[in-house]
Amino acid sequence: xxxxxxxxxxxxxxxxxxxxxxxxxSTLNRVYKNVQFYRKIFDKLNVLPEDIQxxxxxxxxxxxxxxxxxxSYPYDMFAVSLREVVRLHSTSxxxxxxIVVGYTKNDLKNWTNLAARILTAxxxxxxxxxxxxxxxxxxxxxxxxxxxxxxxxxxxxxxxxGHTEKQIIIMKDYKTTALVCTPSYALRIADTMVNMEIxxxxxxxxxxxxxGEPWSENMRKEIEGRLYIDALDNYGLSEVIGxxxxxxxxxxxxxxxxxxxxxxEIIDPSTGTVLPPGExxxxxxxxxxKEAFPMIRFRTGDITKLNWQQCECARTCVRIExxxxxxxxxxxxxxxxxxxxxxxxxxxxxxxxEPHFQLVVDRKDRMDVLKVLVEVSERIFxxxxxxxxxxxxxxxxxLSSVLGVNVDVKLVEPQSIERDLKKYKRIxxxxxx
Length: 433
Ligand code: DLL
What we know:
Layout: H1 6-9, H2 13-34, H3 36-45, H4 66-71, E1 85-90, E2 100-104, H5 105-122, E3 129-132, H6 141-152, E4 155-157, H7 164-173, E5 178-181, H8 183-195, E6 207-211, H9 217-227, E7 230-237, E8 242-248, E9 255-257, E10 262-267, E11 281-287, E12 298-304, E13 306-307, E14 319-320, E15 325-326, E16 331-333, E17 336-338, H10 340-348, E18 353-364, E19 367-376, H11 378-381, H12 385-403, E20 407-412, E21 427-429
Parallel strand pairs: 3-4, 3-5, 5-6, 6-7, 18-21, 19-20
Antiparallel strand pairs: 1-2, 7-8, 8-9, 9-14, 10-11, 11-12, 12-15, 13-14, 16-17, 18-19
Helix pairs in contact: 2-3, 5-6, 7-8, 8-9, 10-12
Bound molecules: 5'-O-[hydroxy(phenylacetyl)phosphoryl]adenosine.
5'-O-[hydroxy(phenylacetyl)phosphoryl]adenosine binds next to strand 7, strand 8 and strand 12.
């Protein structure tokens, strides 16, 4: 079994913990010196970075939340001057303040190494032809994995997302061996192959590395059975680095989280208390090597548990259980994070749209479909069809551009969306994953 960075991935626990402590202290110093948000926290608590003398001591510091990051838009959380930043990415959203993340040259080196680790853990080697079908752009997925695959020496085909038939032709003609995308897109590819009468057995595809959204063991079985590949899960998030935080090895028994770069904690999401090893709760991550955008105790909103038993693959780092749930109402549509609050903000821009809306999510032809039911005023509802149609089209376009995914919109009658908060469900998620 190949391991990309054996010295770190298989480091004896004692050494690893010592390294974590050294790196933690240097990160705390960095944020204390350079990020006003963190300095204020330390000053308020009357502690100095050097007062944190153990990994456990971290739990004396408060959490960093998505709201803290939104409030720091665009650069207030950066711990280096912009001159040192060589790359920017962001979460989706043009209103509702996206989270902008920056990378120094060193950060990119580390990210590339982490991506190489997850691809290697999944079985990619320099002999592979890796097709990357994540969208190249502001989101972190495509670029993160792209450089990791190149680092390994594999040949990268940066197809980006969409144009499924073309993806399949490329897959066939260029002899792709490893597919990198969201798991739902992998199934979409499998369906399209059926329509194109292409038998996946005749292709060279042997591996799939999927992530960016939750997917079940059943989905894994379906992908593996239909594409004749080994399908592996990998997890990451923009605020922490992007893809490269944790990934499955070929034993597919939890995702190895690279503890030389990240400290994980599991907390009770309602009280914030750190839970004992093995209990399920919200994953909190502290970064240990990030220069431009270090995070102290970032609340990911993802529910999982930690498994400290050593894996058969010989990696010594902790494993997280496959992530299937979140604490908040963040939706992941085609791998893109969407918050109802972003939708609310857009609707406020349109006169005659009530702030009452409901989100219905389905999976049609393997693709997530988000439909927004928007309640409109009497005046709009009884307006001529042409005007209504124009409003509908404008909302649709604006929402799609703000969220970064195509959205369906339906205008509904005044007072038709439930008012009783006990009965009202803002999100109806019909996806079976
Ligand atoms: O999704 C980064 C990524 C891209 C990871 C490609 C893996 C592959 P964000 O857009 O910031 O970043 O979304 C992060 O997506 O907090 C989880 O809720 C969810 N998520 C990501 N990977 C998985 C996974 C990227 N493998 C948010 N399983 C995270 C379950 C996942 N959920």
